[in-house]
Design brief:
Layout lengths: L5 H19 L5 H20 L7 H16 L18 E3 L7 E4 L4 E5 L3 H5 L6
Antiparallel strand pairs: 1-2, 2-3
Helix pairs in contact: 1-2, 1-3, 2-3
């Protein structure tokens, strides 16, 4: 059996992290998972062109899915920190870098690492 390449490892990890956040927000419907797969396919080409960017893929896939969901369904993930005012989405930081995390710019806080939204939103999270 051939070992899994670093490229494939990065893509599988990114898929798992973003899916974990979608599950935490109860947004992991089949059509939404298809958005993740679309992003993975596009980012595979991107990392093939720039192998040093493999560590950035999780944040990029999270942003891709967030953008696609905004176009189709609305904001995701909603901020679990701010209890008042208009609902708003979290942002991924850094936009291009390692260790991506969800932040609330309104409150100025880091909410969770990409893949760990469940720890920030709890079991009753909704999309």
């Amino acid at each position: 059996m051939d070992p899994i390449s670093p490229l494939e490892q990065a893509l599988h990890a990114a898929r798992a992290l973003v899916l974990a956040d979608l599950v935490a927000g109860r947004a992991a419907e089949a059509d939404v998972v298809s958005l993740v797969e679309d992003s993975i396919a596009q980012r595979r080409w991107w990392v093939e062109q720039w192998p040093d960017g493999a560590g950035f893929v999780a944040g990029l896939v999270a942003q891709d899915v967030q953008d696609a969901l905004l176009d189709r369904y609305g904001r995701w993930p909603l901020c679990p920190v701010c209890g008042s005012g208009d609902p708003h989405a979290l942002d991924v930081e850094p936009e291009l870098g390692p260790d991506p995390h969800w932040v609330c710019h309104k409150a100025g806080v880091r909410v969770a690492s990409v893949g760990s939204l469940g720890s920030a939103t709890g079991p009753a999270a909704s999309s």
